[in-house]
Amino acid sequence: MRSRRSTASSAGRGARPLRGRGRSPGRFTELDAGNLERVVRTNLIGSALCSREAARRMSTQRGGRGGAIVLLSSAVAVRTGAPGTWVHFAATKAAIETLSRGLARELAAEGIRVNVVRPGMILTETRLTQSAEYRARLLAQVPMGRLGDPGEVAAAVLWLLSPAASYVTGTELEVSGGL
Fold first, then answer.
1. Quick one: average pLDDT of 62-85?
2. Which of 87, 90, 108, 123 could crosslink 76 through cysteines, CB 3.0-4.6 Å?
3. Which residues, 6 or more positions from 91, have their beta carbon under 8 angstroms from its beta carbon?
4. Nearest of 70, 54, 55 to residue 8 by alpha carbon
5. Residue range 126-153: mean pLDDT, rounded
6. How far apart, in whole angstroms, are the C-alpha atoms of residue 25 and residue 27?
7. Which among 9, 10, 35, 32 has a CA at the least distance from the CA of 21?
8. Which domains does the chain have, with CATH numbers?
9. Three-state secondary structure readout of the chain
10. 172, β-bridge pairs
11. How much is the average pLDDT of 141-157?
């Protein structure tokens, strides 16, 4: 879990593209068990363990001051399921949304809010390695006609962490250009 301060400082001008981890495109039938395990471990288990540790420290029932947890999902988790490319990735992101909803209800009485930011097509290092033709096909699906900037995702996370979102828990905030 990054502190609010480090997240805020990394979201300013010149921020580097968000890095997609644990993903390897391809048909599900060709997916090897090792890749599947890495994606589940990185996305789902990593999010669950970080959330558990944050909750232990923030819980007002354990001497903490309360707080907010924001997990990252993906628009493909609820829109398409990423057929032919990242079905396994989409499945772990959908599981993160279920984790967040359950934790929001479980931890609310302990002063902890839990939400999800659901990015759409964001300018990441992975996106930069894709062919111009593939990116053009993706962009055709986005009503705003552009890729999102990592800073736009960071701003959504920061808002959910802020006092301005003090009554927001158990929700998914989509940052997708209308996808």
1. 94
2. 90
3. 77, 81
4. 70
5. 90
6. 7
7. 35
8. 19-175 (3.40.50.720)
9. CCCHHHHHHHCCCCCCCCCCCCCCCCCHHHCCHHHHHHHHHHHHHHHHHHHHHHHHHHCHHHCCCCEEEEEECCHHHCCCCCCCCCHHHHHHHHHHHHHHHHHHHHHHHHCEEEEEEEECCECCHHHHHCCHHHHHHHHCCCCCCCCECHHHHHHHHHHHHCHHHCCCCCCEEEECCCC
10. 116
11. 95
Say what angle helices 46-58 and 87-107 make with each other, to 10 degrees.
Answer: 20
Amino acid identity at 167: Y
Q: Which two tokens stand for residue 162?
A: 């802020």
> Hey, what are 80's tokens?
């398409």
The phi and psi torsions of 71 (rounded to 5 degrees) equal -105, 155
DSSP bridge pairs for 140: none
Given a cut of 80, whether residue 4 has pLDDT beyond it is no
Cα–Cα distance between 162 and 67 in angstroms, integer? 9
| Residues 68-82, mean pLDDT to the nearest whole number | 94
Mean pLDDT across the chain: 87
